[in-house]
Fold these 3 entries.
Entry 1:
Amino acid sequence: MAIDPDSLTEILQLAQICEDVARAALRIAQDQLRTKLITQDVFDQAFQDYGLAMQKARDMYYQASHSLTQQIIHAADLKTLTDQTAELKASLARLTRTEHILAISFGVVTLAATIAAAVTAPGEAALRAAVTAGTTLKTAITG
Amino acid sequence: MGGLVVMAWLGSAACAPSLASVRTTATLGQQAAAFEGVFDLAAIHCRYMDDARAPDPMCPQLQKDTANWHAVNRALVGYAAALAAMADDSTDRNEQTDIATALGATAQLGQPWSAALNPNLTAGVSQGVATLISGIVGVYRRERLGETIRASNDALQAVVRGIDENIALLDRADLNLLATIADTITSIQLGNSPKADRDGLTIALHAVEVEVTAHRAALASYKIAVDVFAKAHAQLRKKLSGLGDRTADLELLKLIATDAATIAKSVRTAITPPAP
């Protein structure tokens, strides 16, 4: 089975949204560090989570074309993940202050990792894990 | 700048005798010679991740394929040189003949591709390389030209598709790394000591940024070189009956020039970073 170019484009877009989510979470942590709402240790942890999430997004770029030919994720599942992640990105962009930055940054890493897993080894369980990670992150954002 | 050189060359080639379009196409293909190591630079982000003590698990696989990409590029350039030698068979041996022979001999894919790459893509590239090599091997006579172009066109398009796809992925990975570096720099500038700062990366960050940006430019130039060559070759394939006819040659050159300008413009647009 050849790569479906449309699905490939959608996966690359999803990886880009994951990057945007990771960067949005880092921005919040940076603002909180700047205004001394969090300690250096907390920021370091958030920064480390950010780095991991960005790496997971990068993995998706490679895996999207390199390993997906046999079992590319179903377009409807992809749309679910993309919509959910885009919604989280919008929520994070609106968030200016939180008391749960580590819960958010960890939620972002988990989201990126589970989406990468769902993209590289699609299956019902992998998709469910990604959707659950999205729900957990949403809860962390809304506090 | 590269685009201007190509356009100037195309302009001068238009004044050449018949078969100028084959020589032009061959010259465009030979421009890829400058990019043999462009995929080695995938190692930039691997080095960075190693320095950051967060090795990228994909790196060993990416690095395993670099020798094969060298061979792919040699097959492309060798094939282009063979076309040039066939188009100019006034002497038994010429420089293009030697280049084609040498590159053909060293264009063999040595190792199986890594598991990181899409097997359909690499199968197409491997098969394409084998076909291009069979076009390189043999006597360089004008009589072979039509048959060789006809037999090699699909192979060339498959090889270029594989290269293009790898370029697209590495470029996206480069963009991801540039974003990470920019965010790391702003984090360090907060005046504290985040993880990256403690790892001693502050000195190297801007250097890596420059290197990655240069890599993106090299990938874009490579894309222009191979896409223009593939498109010109496809035009040759379509207009084989016109080869050797001066008027048809001139028409073909105009088509190639238009394609070259369009491809160069679209690739440049694609690599231009979005406004902040």
Entry 2:
Amino acid sequence: MSAESGGLVVEGVRKSFGKSEVLRGIDLVVAEHEVVCLIGASGSGKSTLLRCVNLLEPIDAGRIVVNGEEITAPRVDVNRVRRGIGIVFQAFNLFPHMSVLDNVTLGPRRALGMSKANAEAEAREMLGQFGLAEKVGDYPDRLSGGQQQRVAIVRALAMRPRLMLLDEVTSALDPELVAEVLEVVRGLARDGMTMVIATHEMGFARDIANRICFLDGGVILEQGPPDQIFTSPAEERTQQFLARIIAAGRM
Amino acid sequence: MTQPDPGRRSRILLGASGPVANVSIAVVSTIVFLVVVTLAIVNSPGWETVKASFFNASEARETFPLVASAFLLNVKMFLIAEVFILAFALLIAILRGLPGPVFFPLRALAIVYTDLFRGVPTILVVYLLGFGMPGLNLTGVPTDPVVWGVIALVLVYSAYVSEVYRAGIESIHPSQEAAARSLGLTRAKTLRFVIIPQAVRRVIPPLLNDFIGLQKDTALVSVLGSVDALQQANINSAADFNYTPYVVAALFFIALTIPLARFTDYLILRERRRRQAGGVA
């Protein structure tokens, strides 16, 4: 894996909130164009790991390398680093005071310095690709959850990131809206986007991932190709977790 | 109270059993109330004296144009002070929200400022600046008491308004900041494009509340001797031994504050409609 040049390398990352250590030494390598799904119970550290990779949370120990650059080194320009990494949140986090178009163009215009005309032209094109052409002038409150999440994905993509982080992007959606968002993510995977996806959608993870990582207690307990993890997991904790998922009918 | 249930929904919305019944009840109760109050006042033993000294029609006609032109000074002071307050208070609120130990001095300064100017009575600040600053005889320092009166109002009201802004800024969910920062926006740009626009929309009603207060407090500047509506009313009332000019001045203040209140209601409504109706950007 040529992970030092493209992709993501996470080495020995630790993170505590107060007295509770959420990440206890995470090691993870994601090659360029690879899709890695993080699974595990709530509180296992999936979201925290993604937030650390996007530098939204400072880490306590270890290092993170993105596209060959150590982004956790001191004096790194966090704003420049974040421009190259897209993140999509569980709760969409769209800007409610801005139209869909302004949500999407904010980053390109204010962080990349793109002209208004260029940014809007690109945004309209991308929104069109994702079936949102009609919604350009709407405010987020007026959209369905699925539409909002697709806008959030376009907002992240508008920065032309080389790495996308998806943090349980379907967990806040009504069941009938999950499919439209997952379809968008599948499209990104087909286009070769490097992605790290925290998810509870096991069927989706199995479909889309090149590799599954099972997080438990702040470490990656087990990882491997989907078939191996879902059919013959080696670790007892992984087996228990998957058994609970199957019992809940979410497989 | 407990009627059969078909009207339940409208009772919840309107507080009684239906729109028509509601309006007629409101009209009748208002008329009864007004009649009782009017009769009580008009039949009070001192009414004739009060009427002559507070509600004298010819006195009102005579002083109206004088108070009106003096009131222009209040309007001018209010408008100028408001512009500076809006900007200065936002600066204070932003200083107070700066993160990290490096900015401790600026944060502390903002806190001391708001504590100080919210703690001292406005009229004292007006006196101290209005008489003190010109008294220094410094070159370049304005000697017009009105200027110092306005500066005093700006200092006092900025302390209040900065707290209003701060409440608005703190009410914006941290996930909004995370979303903006994740796009690579700097902290300053996040504040400017994401946090402050939302915060200001949220605090428009309390902001207006402070501005109504400001409008009335422009009358305090009259203690420095400038002839505003209150001072003009003072002059006329003393000359004619009649309090009607005060009532005239009061009407002018009311005439300014009520439209302002309705205007804010309109702004809030428009914002809500725009966000919920989507469409035209």
Entry 3:
Amino acid sequence: MIRKTGAYLIVWISAVFFLQPPQARAQLILGQYEEEAPFGTWNTFAPARASSIGRGGTCFTLAADSSASLSNPALLLLLPRLTVMVNGSADYASFFKYSLVNTGVLGSNGNLSQTLYALDYSGISLHLGKWAYALTVSINELYNRPSAYAAYSAQETVLYSLSLTQTGILRSFNLSAAHSFNDWLSAGLGINFSVGDLERKMVEQWTQTGISITDRKTRDLKEFNLNGGLLVNLEDRVRLAAVFRAPCSRQSKNHSFLEYVAPAGPTDIQIEASSVDKVRQPLVLGLGASYKLLPNLWAALDLSYYNWSRYSVDYFGEDLERDFRDVLKVGAGLELQSFFRIFGQRIDFPVRLGLVYDPQPMRNPRSSYASFTVGGGIAWQNFKLDFGALVGREYGSGNNLAAGKFSMSLTFQL
Amino acid sequence: MLTSKRKTNSRKFGGKFGDTHLISELSVCHRIFHRFLLLAVFTLLSVAFLPGPQNPGIKEIVSVAKTPFLENKIRDMGLDLLADWEGKIFIVARPEDLVALEQAKIHFMVETTKFAPFVQTPAAPAGGGINGAYHSYKELEADMLALQQKFPGLAKVFDIGDSLEKRNLYALKISANVAFDEDEAEVLFLGCHHAREWISVEVPFLFGKYLLENYATDPEAKRLVDRSEVWIVPLVNPDGLEYTIHVYRYWRKNRRDNKDGTYGVDINRNYGYKWGVSNNGSSPDPRSEIYRGLQAFSEPETQAIRDFFLKKNFQGMVSYHSFSQTIMYPWGYTTVIPDQEPVLRDIAAGMAALIREVNGRAYSFGPAGQTLYLTNGDAVDWTFGTSAIPSYTIELPPVDEMSGGFFNSEADIQSIFEENLPAMLYFVDRFIREYSPRRSSFRQDLPERKLDKSRRIR
């Protein structure tokens, strides 16, 4: 048994470190030019995986796998002795104004959308007596935008073209530990190290003259932060939680490269700059509660307070203006645990439903997502397969933006 | 010994009597020598005839439109014709030829850079702001306030209004006894109506910096500062400039949301003299690069300049733009020449000559409507039309798109300023000389708006 477990461990630890996805989620930005806005939502604390998505993203008091380490590490104590999980997602978001799209240079008739697929999480947890540990790797933020291309042609010859691409990712490594003080109180703490990059590139070309302009801006990101939580278990029917993510300073190594080339000139003008700046990430505080309505039915509620008014961005030595307000994100959901038997084997299948209210930090325009979520799963012996889907609509910007996510995870547990 | 040597030489280079190896060696030596000689002659000729660094007296290559009339006139002038290409006649012109062309009122464009050898401009070392050695809005704000702090008796920064996105429009006043509005000639320099014309921020700002930093050591700078009030608004369109830095380098207009999916009003088509008089020199279409807005002075940026201008008593105004190396005076809205054209032309010619003296770079000049294209609602027509003061648009380098268009290398900022400096000094000096005091007592200057750096931009 120990040898078998060891083999699983090796396989899954390999997955943790090597099966990292290329790109996943995408977020919108409303009437602003901020390249650093995560794709999907600004509120990226406690990124939801398949099981929690289905119940409205609630993950402060209920846990199904090691991804609890990213929201409330104390929940690791509720997991079996060993869990190993990988999660893949398809993210969808629509955009209207971003960068030079619909801000005066390129116009679109409607919203532009993007769907990204990725293996966005892998993690392992170990529960040993009063202690539990987790090691996870996840994609917490993406900075992609729909690519834009415009061209002017005459007689099937492209005379002018303009293209815009933006990609980016923030990958986080989390190491967490949790301790149970007694039957009703436990606490956990996680250390997060995040690295990432962002690239925005614009190329403009006039074919006949050969003139081209290239504007390329990149950022290399690095961040340390702490997260943690307390869990109170009352009579096995009620759970209460308090969680936090500490404010931190994200280091951003920025580089700007601007080039004008006119071969017939011949002219090649380059304007290049670099800087090391800071992005101050806000404090996040959360409260969670769940209640066992029936022996197999849980109701959960999560409240997350984001201190966005303290958010600040230094960029090439300048303090960029970000007119942000604090926001309170709300998630609520139900989880029904059921099972059936087939060929004498018990098959568990949870069913989940939820709602999410996710206000965005910009003061103007004020904007929020309202989302409906649904999920389910199937568990047999040591394996679980979960899926969750979120369908959201944005209110406030007037652009009727949409966001969606489908996530699936495979968990092995002992 | 000599005989012996000759013998040796004879044996070694003995030509027809030597062995074939030696013959071959001799032949190779001759060929190398001849090639070297040819190369040297060619190099000397090249150095003699190819254009070198631009210094006073060096020839320029200029073009004039190819019309039968001009073709004959140019031939009669005995100019050195270089090529006939794409509807233009290219001329290798000496400085005196340029003067002759100006005197003959033949409009020409300097095209020297088209024939220059390829030189990749080295990138300036990184370390400036995001746009390198050019100013962003905040860098300019900091630098202007730093000048005020460093030269408290000579420089004062005024906040003359806000942009659409609530950025401050700053005016830098330079004068002895700067806190007072003395009875002196007042001259205004404007920059960056058009967001992408980054060099147009730098030249007027550097002029202010030059006057202040040389006040203590340069008698000429001191005289100008003592006897005039120089006002510099280097950034009329801060919102647009920030957009060019962060989003799209070739943005021109301000950041007005036209509520139809388009953005921006061309600030330099929004002034109130002959505003919208035709759709040739401006456009009623919000999609256009030269959209003039819904009405004259609809934009806070032009309102600020208008209100500021009307509170003062300027004797001359220059609005910097890029590109094309041209000095233009009214009118822009029509090809008709104003009555004051001789004076306007005289000043423009003076400035062009001074610019050319610095490094040989020629700026053409003439009435705006005739020289470049028609414009209506621009700053120069408005200041001239309402106050009848000499007003100029100076289009800074480069001369054309092939030489950089709206781009100038960071290394060129200082040289472009330096070539314009004598013309700027001349411009101020001219009004000092012509100015007759209107009153004898000091009076308090513009009511000062509190500089509010904490205001949110959006």
